[in-house]
Design a protein that fits this description.
By secondary structure, this protein is an alpha+beta fold. It folds into 2 domains: 216 residues, Thrombin, subunit H (Beta Barrel); 80 residues, Pdz3 Domain, CATH 2.30.42. Helix content is 25%, strand content 31%. It contains 8 helices and 19 strands. It has a 7-stranded antiparallel β-sheet with strand order 5-4-1-2-3-7-6.
Amino acid sequence: MKKGLLIAALSVILSGLVSYVVAGKVSAKTSELSEFKEELREKNEIPQDRKIVRSEKDVMTATYFSDAAEMAVNSVVYVKVVKKASRQQSPSSMFDYFFGFANTPQDQVGIGSGVIISEDGYIVTNNHVVSGADEVQVTLYDNSVHDAKVIGTDAATDLALLKVEGTGYQALEMGDSDELRLGEWVLAIGSPYDLRSTITAGIVSAKGRSFPNYDGSYRVESFIQTDAAVNPGNSGGALVNTSGQLVGINTSIISLTGSYSGYAFAVPVNIVKKITDDFIEFGSVQRAVLGISMMDTDKGVTIADVRAETPAAAAGLRSGDIIKEINLNNVNTASEVQVQVSKLRPGEKAVVTVLRDNVQKEIMVNL
């Protein structure tokens, strides 16, 4: 009897110790999560109140674009690229050979646009504008021509960073593409068909657009869609709001003819900031990895699979979880999840808010 009572007492004590240890670990995790969320709010990375308040000036300039255009146009440059042709080409016939009429390979010349983002000469443009170029030149608003060096290219976001020597360049202030509203007026500035410093106007038609990925390549897409007229040569140019701030880099159109048909797409400036900062600071893009595959469903962004030995697996994310927020930013599509993760670097943390069995959970992930 006494032995039984002793065993029962020991069991109670041991159970209490286990509960204490588990409770301590849960409490520590909860404390870490709360502290991290508070840090996010203190840094103003995530506004607690997402209601956007427009100033009287913003309302007035919603229909008058002159100020915004004049503030931005001198920061948009004309980009010329040259791809050298191979000189090793045989004459097409014996006649050409004997009479010196051998075909001379021609260099390929392309044009596009770019945006000055710093006074010391950093210029952002599209990857597809400068990809494979042997020479890059930019022409500024004062018609001065400068040789440009390609600092970095990123096919996944279709962005590239150029650098020209010198200082005192007129840089365009960057805005916040997350604050763009559907129906908000925007201006597209670039050099379509070699018509330099062309300005067109439209509205934000949609946000978070992505295209079918037929080749399976890795891409980060959450385009701003606008009906501002954009044509070949606009690529790499500026999409600005009515305050004259850069909110996107014009990238592509959907067209059956190759010309503007009412749909144009721009890379959001919040992605541009991250990519250009990485190039300047690290020399290459620093991408965080979550380790999941996702799909858009009627319930939201559903995790289809969690890969083994990834940050997602280590944090306890599960297949079937529905992602609602990343670092307190609402996400409604897989492309929006991609964008939020692409803002982060390896070694940083993220709070992933998921719905699991109709219960909302906040999970800290070490990327």
